[in-house]
Each structure stands twice: as C-alpha cells, then as structure tokens.
C-alpha cells in the first residue's frame, strides 16, 4: 500500500470515528494508581510493555471496525505511538504543577521569538510544548477523541506507560541539583529528558506489536469467556428476582 493511500485511509478513519469514540468510563485509572504506589524500576517497566499481549478485539475497536488488516494495524500503531507521547506531556504538566491543556490537538506553531518573549514560566512551557513536533503531528492525523481513545487504551492495558513518565519526571524534579523554583532552564532540561524517555517507551511499544498473533487471540478468547460467564451470572440474578 502506498504512503498516499495509507494516509488517505487513515484520515478517513479519523473523520468517520470522530463522532463514534466516546471516552470510556471504565478506563482503568485504578490500575495506574496501583502501579504508581509500587517501587519504581525503569527497565522492569519497559519489560512489562515489551511483554504485553494486546487483546485483538480491543485493538479492532480502536478503528471502530471501519478498516481491517494491515491498514488497521498501521492505524493502531500510529495512534498508540502518539498516545504514549501525549501521556508523556500530560504527566510532565502534572509533575510541574501546570493545568491540563484545553485542546490537545489544536495546531499551533509559535516562533522562536514568541518563545523567548514568554512573560511567565508557565507560558514559556506552553510555547515550548506547542513548538514540539509531536503536537503538530497529532493535529494532522487525529482528532481529540481518537487520541483520547488511544490514551484510555494504554491506561487500561499498558499502565506501565503512564507509570514510566510520571515516575521518571518525579525523579528528575527530585534530583539534588534541581531548582526548587521552576525556571526556563529547568523546563528545557525536562524537555530534553522527555525525548530520551519517549524513545525508550516507543521502542518498547514497537516490540509489543511484534508479539505473535496467536498471543492476541488467546487473550481475546479469555476475555470472551469472562464475558460469557458474567452474562450467565447476570441471567441467574434476573431469575432470582
């Protein structure tokens, strides 16, 4: 499939699913919170991502069943790639004490002059974030709901992604030489560290997609079996009323 054809299909899927995806109320924030309480080992968390067996059925739902095969595979890879980067930026904001961004995929490419003229540290961070290539690519490929669906998926099935960003940023801000009062130099340092973390997480996610298809089918069968069991139990509950 040519790059032009793939991008056309990708944009079509994004447009069609813009009104289909709704942020799942069952996002596993509890699993993220639980893992944040445990001792942090960077390599161990990367290993958890590497060995994650993605459920095939849920992966298909990311495209709302509008495309299949290699097109769906490439769409999901790209979506989760950008989703993990977006999680990284959101966790950086949290650790630095900045509020969440209002519209993540809004295209905005400020000039270097605007960045230098930022009146406050928070504005400087906002401009540095906006000038980052990740933000611009997100706005070209995905709507806000698609990007959110990717982050929800990672939080539910691969909570180690958010854990890595949160704990690494906390370590960076907690280092002995870190400035207590946040300034531009510290923000620049955080962005430099973000790039290093991002590359490690992205490499782990690529390996995650390389796990054999049989593994995904096994997970899918287990999920289906659990659903059938829950449905059976619910029938018994109704009959008991």
Please explain how this structure is put together.
The chain has 241 residues and is an all-alpha fold. The protein has one domain. It contains twelve helices and no strands. α3 packs parallel to α11 and α5 crosses α9. The longest helix is centred in the middle third of the chain and has 28 residues.
Domain count, please report it.
Answer: 1
How many helices? The count is 12
Order of helices and strands: HHHHHHHHHHHH
Low-pLDDT sequence parts: 18-28
Shape: globular
Task: Give a count of the beta strands, DSSP E runs of length 2 or more.
Answer: 0
Q: Helical amount among residues, as a percent range?
A: over 70%
Main beta sheet, described?
none
Roughly how many Å apart are the termini? Answer: 56 Å
How much of the residues is beta strand, in percent?
under 5%
Rg, Cα atoms, Å: 20 Å
Alpha-beta classification: mainly alpha
Rounded average pLDDT = 78
Keywords: Signal
Protein name: SXP/RAL-2 family protein Ani s 5-like cation-binding domain-containing protein
Signal peptide: 1-18
Helix and strand arrangement:
Blueprint: H1 3-17, H2 29-37, H3 42-50, H4 56-61, H5 69-96, H6 112-116, H7 121-130, H8 133-141, H9 144-157, H10 160-173, H11 184-209, H12 213-240
Organism: Caenorhabditis remanei
Signal peptide: 1-18
Protein name: SXP/RAL-2 family protein Ani s 5-like cation-binding domain-containing protein
